[in-house]
Amino acid sequence: xxxxxxxxxxxxxxxxxxxxxxxxxxxxxxxxxxxxxxxxxxxxxxxxxxxxxxxxxxxxxxxxxxxxxxxxxxxxxxxxxxxxxxxxxxxxxxxxxxxxxxxxxxxxxxxxxxxxxxxxxxxxxxxxxxxxxxxxxxxxxxxxxxxxxxxxxxxxxxxxxxxxxxxxxxxxxxxxxxxxxxxxxxxxxxxxxxxxxxxxxxxxxxxxxxxxxxxxxxxxxxxxxxxxxxxxxxxxxxxxxxxxxxxxxxxxxxxxxxxxxxxxxxxxxxxxxxxxxxxxxxxxxxxxxxxxxxxxxxxxxxxxxxxxxxx
Amino acid sequence: xxxxxxxxxxxxxxxxxxxxxxxxxxxxxxxxxxxxxxxxxxxxxxxxxxxxxxxxxxxxxxxxxxxxxxxxxxxxxxxxxxxxxxxxxxxxxxxxxxxxxxxxxxxxxxxxxxxxxxxxxxxxxxxxxxxxxxxxxxxxxxxxxxxxxxxxxxxxxxxxxxxxxxxxxxxxxxxxxxxxxxxxxxxxxxxxxxxxxxxxxxxxxxxxxxxxxxxxxxxxxxxxxxxxxxxxxxxxxxxxxxxxxxxxxxxxxxxxxxxxxxxxxxxxxxxxxxxxxxxxxxxxxxxxxxxxxxxxxxxxxxxxxxxxxxxxxxxxxxxxxxxxxxxxxxx
Lengths: 311, 331
Fold this sequence. Notes:
The complex is a heterodimer of chains A (about 300) and B (about 325).
Chain A: E1 7-21, E2 27-41, E3 45-49, H1 56-64, E4 71-79, E5 82-83, H2 86-92, E6 97-100, H3 113-118, H4 126-135, H5 152-166, E7 170-174, H6 182-197, E8 201-206, H7 209-215, E9 218-223, E10 226-232, H8 233-238, H9 246-254, H10 288-292, E11 297-300, E12 303-306
Parallel strand pairs in A: 3-8, 3-9, 6-7, 7-8
Antiparallel strand pairs in A: 1-2, 1-4, 4-5, 9-10, 10-12, 11-12
Chain B: H1 2-36, H2 41-49, H3 55-65, H4 71-83, H5 97-132, H6 137-151, H7 154-168, H8 189-223, H9 226-233, H10 238-260, H11 262-275, H12 281-291, H13 294-322, H14 324-330
């Protein structure tokens, strides 16, 4: 990807926290995303990979401005160089920025698929939606079905069709592959690759690093609500030494084909994040500095890493 | 659409068979209960005649009631007469039971329809309001009201309304379905509605909170669902979401609930009509029970069972109309 391509989405130092009432009247603050930065350009698929509970879905909601009422957002969000204010988010979502959710539960169970895919926008674009259904290989009669009558793959395509119908420039796909067979998963990812190749930007939120690496240009490794490393996808194929952050390396080693070694310890709970580097408690190369200060994002060999030592 | 009609016809047919069996069972149980009760229908019949009865006359009456027959045979006799449309003669009113039920039911129907409409509309509307503003003050206020209403007994509420609005304020009549002393032909619709207001309000309070709380819960479920989150992500506004997804998910459950609440409605009407001396079926049950009027009691029992069954049938049909999953099962 040439650096000249327009940056569709820029996330700078984004933090999202939720207020929650714990025991009694004590208010608890859950920090789902801390100090996250990420850029998505036209023509690019950026995979956001991380374990469950690392705040990936919250990221999608934050960009679209559909976080629940008890969420507090800090930092900067820019879409095509301009700040994404709540008003602009309202205007853009479903038009320029589209979400492709993960499962059939995101379709209204009482509504026929066709009308539902058409959306609430007027005038109705039924004809164009039919074309898109055809292009995605959905049989003619699909539009008359209810969500529970769809197979997993059909549901996925219906969800994808909504992004195509909106003609969105930025597509955020939230875990589009779990529960699918390998063939279906590949097909789904190919659709996103095609969307990017047509000049759109795609954020692919996933925990399947193997598949993400196949189709993404860059991979952002998520840990405890922040990106610890953003690397060209090719680095993951080249191996451990091409990666920059100790967590990415550990993740790579944990893949079945690379030794299947688990990382000791577990991801910190969002209600009690450690001071300093979030990975420090589990990091084999931590120093005193890591436990005191949050490391800055550094450019290293064409990637970004949030570590004092990563090289 | 032809398929839909066929499907509905099949459901109605299947349900009708169940309904007939149920009515048979209800009639048998009711008959057994009356037989086992200390009420002596012959004695009551004679008592209500108000004149002395010769022993020949009494024998004739005993013969009519089948006093010497075994209970099973008596039941079958009664049943065959019922099947021929003859519910017997009320010993209180000295008129055919069927006529009394027909007359009283019209009064009750007006009352129940008014109460039902009121509670359904209000319950649904306020339920939506509560769901929409969940956790905020309109929700908390209305929720408390609903809890209070659903824990207050209907007859007590009726007495309070009567005391406040009829006795103290004098806004509404003390009771009955028309002004005292007015001839039947002279009663206007306005007067009827005026007499209906308080009993209807009392009766509606019974199922109102049920519908409101269910609607609230359902709407909250819908609004917190994944598909509403996705609708938001697609740029649908709050109102579009309420209209497209909220109403769809909430309207028919509420409607089904309203139809399924016919039994509560009938049970409540006994209390409300008694408190307001309203001449409906409900107060007739109370009178028949207290006066030992066996034919009327049995007749109304059967009729009310039928009434509740019809409500349930409508609710069943509605489930299928609304929920495609149930429709598929029904097909």
